[in-house]
Amino acid sequence: MRILLISDIHSNIEALKAILNKEKDFDLLAVAGDLVDYGTNPAECVEFFMNYKKPLALVHGNHDTHLINIYRNTDWKNVKGKDFKWVHENCWKLGEEHVSFLESLPDHLCFEADGWKYMIQHQYDSSYGIIESFKQFDNYWDEFSEYSGDYSRRRLIFGHSHRQTMSMLFGEREWINPGSISYRRPDDPDKEAHYAIIEDGKVEFRRTAYDRSVQFKVAQEHYKMGDMMETELQDFYFFFGPAKTSRDPLKIY
Ligand SMILES: [Fe+2]
Predict the structure, then answer these.
(1) Is the pLDDT assigned to residue 253 strictly greater than 90?
(2) For 174-201, what is the mean pLDDT?
(3) Helices (H) and strands (E) in the chain — how many of each?
(4) What is the pLDDT of residues 71-126, one digit of tens each?
(5) Distance 251 CA to ligand 1 centre (A)
(6) Residue 59 belongs to what H/E stretch?
(7) Co-location of 135 and 22 in the same domain
(8) How far is ligand 1, taken at its centre, from the CA of residue 94, in Å?
(9) Residue-by-residue DSSP string for 85-146
(10) How far is the CA of 156 from the centre of ligand 1 (A)?
(11) Residues 114 and 224 in one domain
(12) Does residue 166 have a pLDDT over 90?
């Protein structure tokens, strides 16, 4: 069995298309959440998953929940100028059908493949905590997995950190993070789309280049219009543009 494992799409349709162009042959698409926010094409990304007809293990992430909350419970249409963030920009580009779809996504999903039992979710705790001991692993597994109490070969799949990681714990317990297909953390200079392939149980981290100029152009437009919070634009100038750090002064390139 061949699994394409991706996470943290963040409204980046170019990165998603680049991976799908490269990896055409897989049996299951597993997605560890954060479909939207911090990117320019939320509707295209959500619609891709809404219309996906093949086997799919898709859970929601904290940015999906954040956007739902902003969309449902705040006066986002009247947020303007320096208070305007990517999440508000995404709300303008989404409709009821997209938000309802995000609301329908589960926290956790379980599946079996090639002798391993998997559970996929976006994050381990409410921050950036990770599993460091097999006791932590078992407690988490028993609390949330539909295979609770089954201690055969197990893998947890996480997203959230945007860092490609694989941790092997005693007794064939593993957790995997494929990284983000979209953007990196400020200490990571790599700008490619990160993902993983799990083929016949073997995990391989992969990366591919994609056209980041689409995201950057939208950020440039917001900068010229002066209609978005400065730190939100700085993030984009760093992730998708030529800025050397995530806090370089903004300028027209
Ligand atoms: Fe994320």
Answers:
(1) no
(2) 95
(3) 8, 10
(4) 999 999 999 998 999 999 999 999 999 999 999 999 999 999 999 999 999 999 99
(5) 26
(6) none
(7) yes
(8) 18
(9) -HHHHHHHH--HHHHHHHHH--SEEEEEETTEEEEEES-SSSSS----SHHHHHHHHHHH-T
(10) 17
(11) no
(12) yes
Share of the chain above pLDDT 70, in %: 100
Give 160 Cα–ligand 1 centroid separation in angstroms.
Answer: 5
CA of 196 to the centre of ligand 1 (A): 16
Domain count, the chain: 2
Q: How far is the CA of 199 from the centre of ligand 1 (A)?
A: 25
pLDDT value for 218:
97
CA of 45 to the centre of ligand 1 (A): 14
- Which of 208, 225, 244 represents a domain boundary (last residue)? 208
251 & 175 share domain = no
The mean predicted confidence, pLDDT, of the chain is 96
How many Å lie between the centroid of ligand 1 and the Cα of residue 149?
30
SS3 173: strand
Instruction: Record the pTM.
Output: 0.97
130 Cα–ligand 1 center, Å: 15
